[in-house]
Backbone:
């Protein structure tokens, strides 16, 4: 990431769960937002990032951090429909707002995923109170580093030195991570 | 379980994955069979029993143990279709034969699940070389006990004292276990 | 803890390991200090708090956080000598400075332990740049909360709401925690 | 291991804990014996093999398996005395008989360790009802394989194919394993 913070693009969501009204990042300006990109059939999401998100929710329950799930389906589209997602959220006790990233047919990757240049699932984007992207990660970070980073987002930015980089390359799922085709990065 | 071993009922499967031809327990007589009942949206299956089944496959790779997965959908039927199951098996690297337990409309629980009287997912049934049910469990057993039990099935039966009983009661998923409605037990 | 931060007492150490010169909290004023109280035969220290301290060291390696281990022996004194501690630090790859809390015969609990009012092992004390005690804990906190708290100590204090309280009461070791006799609390 | 089962050598123990009378393998003939070689400052023993031994004890509590701990100190001798061992056994809730492997000054490695040709800690030796060595391992085996092997020892031998080999080579502790100097292997 560059030292100049980039302003976050907006979400493009076709259907929301766990919220009475659609969310926009613009309307959330002023609060830190943790955006969690996942697919319900992604092993690393189910086994690692979703449990971590739920631990984060518990620790920061009394802060104004907004956690948002984003179902960014870029493969097995027929297998991960909204019907299946609804049951998944129920069974995994996911209670924070979750949006289905909008598919537009221009790419296997959905619109928000392309806007943020997400490389695959799980990914997370930490957005500051001013709407800038503080940190963006493909993979799952150490809990200590994640806690530190969010604490700083609640007050001020943390240096990026603590980032643990995922080692997965290429397309498809391996070691629990699901990498999107490269086209999803360039078709923003 | 009674001391008199009961003979295993037959499988009723509507679709098979990871096998060129349908399997029957009758045709497998002579080999020990580990039947693993799961649902793809069951947290205890994804997080605990499927990883254990995969460890079992590795340790007993050079024996004649036959592992069979059985997708016993008794809730969220529209969410766990064969299309989603196919992608699930791919993403979770499940390579042993998996059958979709046949739904007949007589109950939310499918036919094989009712025949065996399975209480929910994950469940496992260990069937001896003679076709008798050696052990049947709702939940996940300690790895040491599972290894011991299968080793004995490869030669002779083990006493049941090592069983770890699940504590979940009632219908629905809790602590990773998904309990079937009671009707599925009585509608055999 | 009260809202008025208390100033940290000083260390009383009879022998240092992993440092060329003795450390004092006074001399460390200006840097945040994480003081980790342990006993080498305490299961919760070996299994939980020491691994967490080592994860903390990795994540905050590029900051000015000072981690200090304090061997606070309050039981089995003949079993946990400096000779055994030296071998323990070697085998567990502990490289940060570790001091042996000074025993003075006035209590089973050593001097620094009494000064801080530590209830048992593992305990941790987070000391701010200004020398005040920001947080003191008997037990092990969630990694996310620990990371958040240290990040704030590197800049500003965190509310105490994220604390996970240990449930152990009384004297002796249970659930991995070793509680000191009550007298060690009152004999400060 | 050769296909010809070797008969187990006898224990040489200088001090026993958790038993009213000294044990000998000769007197235990007829029962399967699981001999667990450890050092109290060995990270892989404390973190992996001892917890596994305790799981084994629970699963096979109602069988005639005899578990015996053997404190095979081959380094840091002054740090791992009988006084420290006694406190260690207390804190880690180890209740099965534990013998201190007898040191004779002929080698850093103690006598029983040399008799069995143990390569380091943790090691385990599974001895059959007839006194033969069924399996000997430096490191920690998968729980499923361990359970299977012990179940077979309670009745009949298992093929050795399931063994998970440790990758540590050389002397000293790494990845939790502590390898003895090579001399301990040749000085039997």
Residues:
């Amino acid at each position: 990431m560059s030292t100049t913070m980039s302003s976050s693009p907006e979400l493009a969501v076709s259907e929301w769960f766990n919220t009475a009204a659609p969310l926009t990042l613009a309307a959330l300006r002023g609060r830190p937002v943790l955006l969690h990109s996942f697919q319900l059939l992604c092993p690393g999401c189910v086994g690692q990032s979703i449990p971590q998100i739920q631990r984060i929710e518990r620790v920061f329950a009394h802060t104004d951090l907004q956690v948002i799930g984003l179902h960014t389906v870029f493969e097995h589209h027929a297998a991960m429909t909204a019907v299946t997602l609804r049951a998944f959220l129920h069974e995994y006790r996911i209670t924070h707002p979750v949006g289905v990233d909008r598919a537009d047919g221009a790419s296997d990757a959905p619109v928000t995923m392309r806007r943020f240049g997400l490389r695959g699932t799980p990914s997370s984007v930490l957005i500051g109170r001013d709407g800038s992207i503080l940190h963006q990660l493909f993979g799952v970070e150490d809990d200590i580093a994640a806690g530190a980073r969010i604490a700083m987002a609640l007050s001020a930015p943390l240096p990026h030195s603590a980032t643990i980089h995922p080692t997965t390359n290429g397309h498809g799922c391996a070691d629990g991570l699901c990498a999107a085709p490269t086209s999803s990065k360039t078709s923003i």
